[in-house]
Amino acid sequence: xxxxxxxxxxxxxxxxxxxxxxxxxxxxxxxxxxxxxxxxxxxxxxxxxxxxxxxxxxxxxxxxxxxxxxxxxxxxxxxxxxxxxxxxxxxxxxxxxxxxxxxxxxxxxxxxxxxxxxxxxxxxxxxxxxxxxxxxxxxxxxxxxxxxxxxxxxxxxxxxxxxxxxxxxxxxxxxxxxxxxxxxxxxxxxxxxxxxxxxxxxxxxxxxxxxxxxxxxxxxxxxxxxxxxxxx
Length: 232
Ligand SMILES: Nc1c(NC[C@H](O)[C@H](O)[C@H](O)CO)[nH]c(=O)[nH]c1=O
Ligand SMILES: CC(=O)[C@@H](O)COP(=O)(O)O
Prior knowledge:
alpha/beta, 6 helices, binds ligand LTPLIIQW, Rossmann fold, 4-stranded parallel sheet, 4-stranded mixed sheet
């Protein structure tokens, strides 16, 4: 049973210049919750110091009532985090661009390897190939809305050329993946490299800068778990 401490007893609105505490807490039920008001507080130094400490009390409190008094505890803050070790039953789609396949193939392999390392079964993964990164968003959105997947990993490699086409493709890919997630309510993970040159890309597809495909898969697992185990 939640116990709410009414903060108005700390405000100087009462003619008795309330401070706090007291011997007895007169509680009134209010819509199923108990509102505890501290009344007729004395103004001894102890009560004032206690008052200031009470100011720190979190509004949501606790519980055990014994007779006319109640032990007040601050509710602990809940922290919700997806687990990368609870993958049982989680299903994933991977959308991968064929453009710059020399980069996207090792990114995909990194993602599949990460899924395997975290016990995601092969039968729980679908890989969908698209021509280029520009096409990823619409497919990710369709996969998200299908209701078949807990998360969608999006893999591509946009590498700058001589024109401003890079900016159009890179920005469209990013906003496409973002929109897919927001519109479908299914986490869509941005694993699309946007690089100035091929070296940068290869370094991030299993080279000295790691494998961004594997990182994207791990993000997908955590997000899928967060949604499945905490946000349903
Ligand atoms: N230049 C890159 C592209 N371009 C192709 C587009 O993604 C798209 O397929 C085309 O504009 C037709 O809609 N795609 C990449 O993934 N990476 C590039 O560097
Ligand atoms: C990202 C691109 O579209 C780019 O690779 C195309 O190269 P360019 O700008 O030289 O046409």
